[in-house]
């Protein structure tokens, strides 16, 4: 595959998160906007690389075993989840709420680990298959505020999707939110991506001091109060510092003031 074809084919993998475990050619054509011949050619090439499988009976497509192999190789060479798990468990134990870890992938975030809480009968359930937008989630806002210039330019120039009535899509209104994140070291998104979900997140940094991911706690909005908010603030800043150090990352000067060194 040439580079352009490779990019188109790999982008098709994202659409498997929008459907059930399997997807048909006609549905993939509608989702991608490609014509049927192009969609079939790209799916066939993905099948050849083991990234996609086709059921011989239903002719439906699903993610292939090569995806698991690549995920294993990634975790073996850079054990992000393994290293972060103990700190995520601490977040859940101390807050009584769900915790999730996300990594930047282009102009979205992918959830790579979730730790659930059994402290409450009503709790947020995180769907790891759903990609997190930069502008509508606490995780996305945390990464954008402390990430590359390209991320900030993207949210200023793209047509942003309105997920709920609380989603901020106006760049002029989004910039003060990002500035507040830089000031506090934390991002909040009350009902911005899902109704009745209040997310709070802290950024995670690479060796260059750029945000590449986030650690977040999600709670039902009805349970959020000032005491819980302040507790989550302290929990997440501590977790951010610990995970960043464990990953071999470094803190930019704008964030170093928020953590204990």
From TrEMBL:
What residues does the HTH iclR-type domain cover?
3-65
Q: What is this protein called?
A: IclR family transcriptional regulator
Q: Record's superkingdom?
A: Bacteria
- Keyword annotations: DNA-binding, Transcription, Transcription regulation
Q: Which InterPro entries match?
A: GAF-like_dom_sf, HTH_MetabolicPath_Reg, Tscrpt_reg_IclR_C, Tscrpt_reg_IclR_N, WH-like_DNA-bd_sf, WH_DNA-bd_sf
Where's the IclR-ED domain?
66-249
